[in-house]
Amino acid sequence: MAGYPEFGFIDSDGIWAEIVTPPAARGERPALFLDRDGVVIEEAGYLHRAGDVSLIPGAADIIAEANRADVPVVIVTNQAGIGLRYYDWPQFAEVQDAIRRKLDLAGVRLSAVFACPFHADAHPPYRHDDHPCRKPNAGMLIKAARALSIDLPRSWLIGDRAIDVGAARNAGCEGAMHVRSGHGGREGERQGSLALASGDFRVLTGETIRDALRGLPLIAGARAP
User: Fold this and answer.
1) Active-site residue, selected from the candidate residues 11, 13, 35, 164
2) Is the pTM higher than 0.90?
């Protein structure tokens, strides 16, 4: 992919695909997928400055629970700001470094980060009417599953947009939690998320990621003897 060859995380599809923790050798495991802006960190509107990174209270706690349960934690984030030229991959990398440092200080770790720069209004080479990796499409989750031996039908996602919940459903996950932080309080986001529930796909709700600590099935099930 032309543009920023110094970032080895950009794969042949133009997606940031950073594997932080290699997959375990013991077979497939369910994963916890997290949207980034508005879920793990405060929504800042096309965030591109490391100094503006602020963890949402409770984010490190739920990641810690997943770490203790040996559940991979994967960020999957639409980053249209790159395609729209509001910022570039080096600035995205600086923001990711700031997030990593804050999580390190909290004693928690991510397993992987996937970011999609494609958008219908983006500049080439990121202009695409419906890229398979842009949520609500499932491409980033599928890439993560292949790279980390993730069992998608037992995996969960936490997001602030109906498109996040839609990506989890389209990937065949067990369920998703919609939170009101970030863009989650906008008109239609909660209703749109709940409308995606079905007999084989659960949708939970909360105010912020902290509410997942009350008993996200994935965490509770993984820690059970």
Assistant:
1) 35
2) yes
Q: Which two tokens stand for residue 212?
A: 């997942």
Supply the pLDDT for residue 1: 35
For 177-188, the pLDDT digits (tens) are 999 999 999 999
Number of compact structural domains in the chain? 1
Strands of 16-19's sheet in order across? 16-19, 112-116, 73-78, 32-34, 156-159, 175-179, 202-206
Q: Which of 11, 13, 37, 121 is catalytic?
A: 37
Angle at CA of residue 44, ends 43 and 46, nearest 5°: 110
37 is catalytic: yes
Average the pLDDT over each of 2-11, 86-95, 136-145 and give the range with the smallest value: 2-11
Q: Is residue 1 part of a domain?
A: no
Q: Structural domain of residue 215, as residue ranges?
A: 16-223
Q: Report the CATH number at residue 105.
A: 3.40.50.1000
Active site residue 35: yes
User: What proportion of the chain, given as a percentage, has pLDDT over 90?
Assistant: 87
Q: Are strands 16-19 and 112-116 parallel, antiparallel or unpaired?
A: antiparallel
